[in-house]
Every structure is written in C-alpha cells, then in structure tokens.
Known about the structure:
This protein has 123 residues and is mainly beta. The protein is built from 2 helices and 9 strands; from the N terminus they run ββαββββββαβ.
Amino acid sequence: RSEVTIKGEKFAVEIADTPVKRAQGLSGRDGLGEHEGMLFIFNEPMTQEFWMKDMKFSIDIIWIQGEEVVHVLRKADTSSYPTVFKAPAPVDKVFEVRAGTADRLNIMNGDKIFITIPGAYGR
C-alpha cells in the first residue's frame, strides 16, 4: 500500500502518475477519509495547475518539490470551478487531502513529506 507521511501522520494514498489518472484525479468521488489522499507524481518539476472540475467535496492541495512542501492551498471549494490553482514554483508532486487536514496538522511550507510506494525505487 502506498503511503504519505507528513507531520507524523500516515495517509493511504492512491497514486496518479499517468496522464489519464492525473486528469481524472478525485473528480466524481463522494469524499476522502481522514487518512486518505491522492498523490500526483510528475516526471519533472513544472508549475502544475489544478481545478475543481466535477468535484463533490472540498480539498486541501499541497504542492511538493522533492520531499518538501512548497505551497499549501487550504479548502479549495467545489464552487471555485473554473478557477485554476497554480503552484508558485515548479513541483514534482501534488498531494490532495480532504479540506481541513492542512489546518488540523498545521502543514506549512518547508515541512518534510515521506512517501512509500511499494516496488517503486527512487521515489
């Protein structure tokens, strides 16, 4: 099982590492559990853009470069579509969790993130 650990808390994550999985994201789902998330993995750092198309619940979006948080968007709301949210700097990962998680754990820029993906080396 793939996991992300941040601020000492573990999250079971689904990995979105293909164009199809990244385009689908969490769209159309009813929600996430308190310790669930989706981790988007990109081949190279870029200024990634996300929107809330077809989302049924609000999320926190955490932009990551390497193993460090570079930006946190708290409570991206379903009503924000078609607004596009951009990372302020190139990132190679984006972690989506249910809204309120970033506040609950006080996630800030510079926080370290630890990723476990069974069978994936170098990630």
